[in-house]
Amino acid sequence: PGQRWEMQARELRLVGGADAAYPLQKKGHTPEFLRTIAHLRPRTNLFGNVFRVRSRMSYAVHRFFQERGFIHVHTPVITSNDCEGAGEMFRVTTLKPGGNARAEDDFFG
Predict the structure, then answer these.
(1) For residue 109, is pLDDT > 60?
(2) pLDDT at residue 91 greater than cutoff 80
(3) What is the pLDDT of residues 17-66, one digit of tens each?
(4) Label partner for 82 (CA 20 to 30 A): which of 4, 18, 92, 104?
């Protein structure tokens, strides 16, 4: 029962202790607190486990399609997010340029 391998040490040498100011301690942390230190979240048990499961699932999906001759393509993403005015750089539309279009034509239905 339990794990497959177990390691036993005859000797242990402490190389360096944890800095008292390090934000992750050996206790539970709320999601709100973890949002303030997003770069350290993968070091927690919860997020580490979630990322491991996500990695395994992604690998299984990719392997499934690879074995059936599919090709994985990273397509460009067009998003409605407008961060710091970057959305004003260009406009994507489904309408023909220069035409007098009705507002109803700009929707897919």
Answers:
(1) no
(2) no
(3) 878 888 887 788 888 998 899 898 888 888 889 999 999 999 999 999 99
(4) 104
Residue written as tokens 């339990």?
A: 2
Helix, strand, or coil here: 38?
helix
Quick one: which of 57, 55, 34 has its CA closest to 45? 34
d(CA 17, CA 25): 12
Burial class (CB in 10 A: 0-12, 13-18, 19+), 34: middle
- Comparing C-alpha atoms, which of 77, 73, 75, 103 is closest to residue 92? 77
Measured CA distances, 78 to 6, 39, 86, 90 (Å): 49, 26, 12, 11
Token pair recorded at residue 86: 């970057």
CA–CA separation, 41 and 35 (whole Å)? 8
